[in-house]
Amino acid sequence: MDKKVIYSAVQPTHCLTLGNYIGALNNWLQYQQEESNDCIFAIADLHALTVRQEPGAYRERCLSLFAQYLAMGLDCDKSILYFQSQVHQHAELQWILNCYTYVGEMNRMTQFKDKSAKHADNINMGLMDYPVLMASDILLYNSNYVPVGIDQMQHIEITRDIAVRFNNIYGDVLTVPEGRLGKVGAKIMSLADPTSKMSKSDPDVNATINVLDEEGVIMKKFKKAVTDCDNFIAYDPDRKAGVSNLLSILAVCTGKSIEQTVADCDGLMYGHLKVRTGEAVAAMLKPVREGYKRLMEDKDYLYRLAEDGRQRAHDRASVTLDRVKDAVGLIPRMGR
Ligand code: TRP
């Protein structure tokens, strides 16, 4: 049976949040479990250079994200885990694909417009070219499915456009990928403003739970979680965003349905719901935090795993890049 290639990546900008864990990583873990999938998960460390990083802290954060991947259950024996910057084919394919991408298209990307507004003092070429690097990530591995959040769907669409455009000229060279949204209902909202998504870059520390937060910190943040002025528990994301967010988090952590969770919590005061949810989150994240600590104590081991991932990613990426170079008419190097 032909395996499906699943590809995704995260930028090493911040510690992963409970929202990433429930929304993205859990989803990746399910893909990883299925025999029929061939999963590749990268750390998009070139993408994150589009905003200024302090080198020492950045190196540490990149390795930390790798350890977080592993602590959450991504497994080098089942998936390829690697650092994007260690596989030079990404940047090379990006150059070639740049020549098949229009400035006007990049100019219209929502994320480019948002980020340009946010970093008005540093609207660099990388920021504008970000989607072409992402297209290169995906296309290098002949990816079939790309699990992402809704905010990344526009990037998947442009990846498809670029691949189709390229194939129209050169024949069937690139695999046209499909974006895959995670399950609905798994969207975790900010604890401080439950009408907006829990985001790893939120400046309000009480808004997000980091997957590495200690139990005490988790409980404190949940106790401060914004609810509403009623005094009854019901699942109604439009009118009771805060309470509904707590209920969905609790449901995910306990593996129960929303209906069952609402029934279990019937009659509880908000304060008790917060404590119950905080405890469930702390219990779920405990093994992640402990596994992470152990991994970070053995950096050589992490580097060895990363090197193994790099080699496997490199071998696959080089096949695609050579095919693309051939297609456009570049001279093959000797011995190939
Ligand atoms: N842009 C993605 C994000 O910020 C990260 C990313 C980089 C990615 N390359 C990718 C996601 C390739 C999927 C596939 O979330």
The low-confidence runs, each spanning 5 or more residues with pLDDT under 50, are none
Termini separation:
29 Å
Widest sheet: strand order?
1-2-3
Helix content: 40-55%
Order of helices and strands: EHEHEHHHHEHEHHHHH
Class by SSE composition: mainly alpha
Overall shape: it is: globular
Percent strand equals 5-15%
The ligands found in this model are: tryptophan
- Total helical elements: 12
Largest sheet: 3 strands, parallel
Q: Write down the overall mean pLDDT.
A: 95
Taking all Cα atoms into account, the compactness measure Rg is 21 Å
Task: Tell me the number of strands.
Answer: 5
Explained architecture:
The chain has 336 residues and is mainly α. Helix content is 53%, strand content 8%. The protein has 12 helices and 5 strands. The protein has helices at residues 18-33, 55-71, 89-98, 103-107, 110-118, 125-140, 153-170, 215-223, 241-254, 258-265, 270-296, 299-328; strands at 4-10, 37-43, 79-83, 145-148, 178-181. The strands form 2 sheets. It has a 3-stranded parallel β-sheet. Helix 8 packs antiparallel against helix 11 (270-296). The longest helix has 30 residues, at 299-328. It is globular, with a radius of gyration of 21 Å. The two termini are 29 Å apart. The relative contact order is 0.14. The mean pLDDT is 95. The structure holds tryptophan. Tryptophan binds next to strand 1, helix 6 and strand 4. Residues 7-11, 44, 47, 134, 137-138, 146, 148, 152 line the site of tryptophan.
Short description:
This protein is mainly alpha-helical.
Write the layout of secondary structure elements.
Blueprint: E1 4-10, H1 18-33, E2 37-43, H2 55-71, E3 79-83, H3 89-98, H4 103-107, H5 110-118, H6 125-140, E4 145-148, H7 153-170, E5 178-181, H8 215-223, H9 241-254, H10 258-265, H11 270-296, H12 299-328
Parallel strand pairs: 1-2, 2-3, 4-5
The structure holds tryptophan.
